[in-house]
């Protein structure tokens, strides 16, 4: 159980923060950048939820919870070698990735194939979902960068990769099943 009765601790005033295992690292470390950007994705999902209703809102709520799982996963270095761990670290699972894939496939069934790249926009929900997509792509890049330096859970990268695809397809659904997608016109303003 989490209990937060004091929000500021002053322990980060020198530019360091504690990871989930208690280790202190620079706030600009690859690991902190990765899970910090996952937190940013979660905030953009919160914005999208302001426009979402019904099943879409429920799916976004599940994604927000998954993103907290992912942040917990990324903030805790590989604990298999740590005999001091009080509990098994929370890790994103392939089942969470598979759920995203199933939801993408279900949404994609009603969409016409793309014949042009689309611009972020259309409805407010679609625009927010495109924002979620681009921030999740950044989180993915930073997580891949972290994976080049340290061992991480491979499902974390898979999850972020599928998540940005989910946001893309979800944005098309929010644009009346793709009918209101804003199409890119190459060289239109030359």
UniProtKB/TrEMBL annotation:
One of its GO terms (molecular function) is ATP binding. It catalyses: 2 cob(II)yrinate a,c diamide + reduced [electron-transfer flavoprotein] + 2 ATP = 2 adenosylcob(III)yrinate a,c-diamide + 2 triphosphate + oxidized [electron-transfer flavoprotein] + 3 H(+); 2 cob(II)alamin + reduced [electron-transfer flavoprotein] + 2 ATP = 2 adenosylcob(III)alamin + 2 triphosphate + oxidized [electron-transfer flavoprotein] + 3 H(+). SUPFAM superfamilies: Cobalamin adenosyltransferase-like (SSF89028). It is an enzyme of class 2 (transferase). It is found in: Cytoplasm. One of its GO terms (biological process) is cobalamin biosynthetic process. Residues 7-173 form the Cobalamin adenosyltransferase-like domain. It comes from the Bacteria. GO terms for cellular component: cytoplasm. Keywords: ATP-binding, Cobalamin biosynthesis, Cytoplasm, Nucleotide-binding, Transferase. Pathway: Cofactor biosynthesis; adenosylcobalamin biosynthesis; adenosylcobalamin from cob(II)yrinate a,c-diamide: step 2/7. Its EC number is 2.5.1.17. Belongs to the Cob(I)alamin adenosyltransferase family. This is Corrinoid adenosyltransferase.
